[in-house]
Write a structure and sequence with these properties.
The complex is a heterodimer of chains A (251) and B (365). Chain A has 2 domains: 5-136, Response regulator (Rossmann fold, 3-Layer(aba) Sandwich); 140-246, Beta Barrel (OB fold (Dihydrolipoamide Acetyltransferase, E2P)), CATH 2.40.50. In chain A, 32% of the residues lie in helices and 33% in strands. Chain A has helices spanning 14-24, 39-49, 65-71, 86-94, 106-122, 129-137, 186-192, 237-246, and strands spanning 5-10, 30-36, 53-57, 77-82, 98-101, 144-149, 152-157, 163-167, 170-175, 178-183, 198-202, 205-208, 212-219, 222-227, 232-235. In chain A, a hairpin with a 2-residue loop joins strand 13 and strand 14 (222-227). Helices cover 64% and strands 12% of the residues of chain B. Chain B is built from 11 helices and 7 strands. Classes of the chains: A alpha/beta (251), B alpha+beta (365).
Chain lengths: 251, 365
Amino acid sequence: MSEKLKAVIVDDEEPARLLLREYLAAHPEVQIVAECANGFEAVKAATDLKPDLMFLDIQMPKLSGFEVLELLDPDPVVVFVTAYDEYALKAFEVHAADYLLKPFGQDRFDETLNRVKDRLKKGNVTRLEPLVRDILAERKWLDRILIKDGSRVHILPVDKIDYAEAQDDYVSFRSGGKDYLKAQSMNDLENALDLSRFVRIHRRYILNIERVARIELYAKDSRIVILHDGKQLPVSRAGYQRLKALFGGEV
Amino acid sequence: MHPILSNRARLVLYVAAWLPLAGLLAALLVLQIRFSWPQALLVAGPLTLLYALLCLPSWYLCRAFPAGLTSQARLLAAQLLAALFSGLLWSALGIPWASLLSHFSGNPDYSESYKAAIPLFFAMGSVIYVAVAFVHYLLIAWQERAEADRLVLEMAVMAREAELKALKMQLAPHFLFNSLNSISALTGSSPKAAREMCLLLGSFLRKSLAFGAKLQVTLSEEMSLVSDFLAIERVRFGPRLSLDFKVQEQAGTCLMPPLLLQPLLENAVNHGVAQMIEGGTISLEASLNGSRLSIIITNPYDPDSRPSKGTGLGLQNVRARLETLFGTEARLEVERDAAVFRVRMLLPVRRSTASLTDQPPATRS
């Protein structure tokens, strides 16, 4: 291994970053390419610097460690660093994720780092999508959509979304007069949203029901919904049944 | 539930208490109205047992006219009327019983003599009814007393539970592990700062444990605990966490239950400032407001951040403790606008002349 491993440290607490820096000093084969104090910086650093390895704190402002992970593509190998989170610990064990529990000593750190280096060498990297899905699914409904735009992150609270439109492998979210593109499937999105506030009106559209101004008959057996801003969206027969159920038949 | 009917031991005791009455009645029948002893017992025995049952519903009348809550005149009138009616009913029921006895024994004496005994049954019945009502009132008083004792005990247990919960929250694992990690980090680069933090953590833990055993502390004492806590958090959060505390001098000497402010400030840190990338200022203002001690804690928060797990638990426990300790005398108001979270606590002003404060206040027995 001639080239150094590129590592990023992510923690919102200065002393915690300091400690990782100190422990990493014993490993000259690892080079710290960035230190981040929040999730936005972490996503940016991961996009720009393509690190091999990320030490990731879980509890951080705005974007939690898990949300950072959701936005990383491709994933670096991640070592979670946390003080205490019963639920996350269970998930780490289930998905064989690497993690460090604060406070930890140099021994434990070295052990974890060596295991991770081993994984990298063998290409035997733990996929973390199932872990992230588990953790995020624990919340009842999706309450905000995270969208990566280059190295920037937009947070869209779901109540600010007018509708979502399928575009091949992407979903385009309409919010505040702008469109945001995210790689996601319509079915996954529909499953994650609160279905008393969002309804799948068409194979290609999911609508925030608060945006509905009225529904009109367009042709025989075919309807359109008109939003408060005048935008018109097609409604399928199944979609109309769902709308009717939501509005108690008065549409 | 009828206290006698619902309890077999009491029912046996109750019926047993009527046996001497049956004997007395029979004796009166023998002495006053020339019944023979066997005749008197045949008349008086079954009728007494019947009356024992007839008197049981008087419980409901006693419940409907509780002593102390109804005016005495109304209570007396109702019970006297009931006593006369019961006596009348009993003496009337004796007539068919006596004729039944006459019929089966072929001896008309029963029926004839009973007529002479009617006034006796009426008078005895009324007096006995009053006695039974009296016993019922005693039972009610005893039940109420037991219920009150149970409530007092329950309140005491609840208050103690809330105090223990407060202490447990004080020693939140997240806070402790993070603090230890900070100390571990500082040990390498800045041993002096690490030692400083050990001392702060030691002081915080010692005070928490000491306060957990107290019923009240002064606001100044609580503030010193809170200051230790925040000094530790400032090591972790650095310049992201700033503080603005104003405690009026007279407010500082007021007494309050311990560990009430700490969970509120912990919320302000964890759910407020810690969720802001740039951090923010937590402010606390304590002042006397008439007969109330008013403490207002404000912190900025990120309206987009989702309520993390554990939100509300600290508030809930503080609220529950205030309720058990002060009832309606204390209030906890929570309000939030677009970017600021504000908690206002109003406590009755209490001071002690002695400086030692682990004596229970007069209102708690």
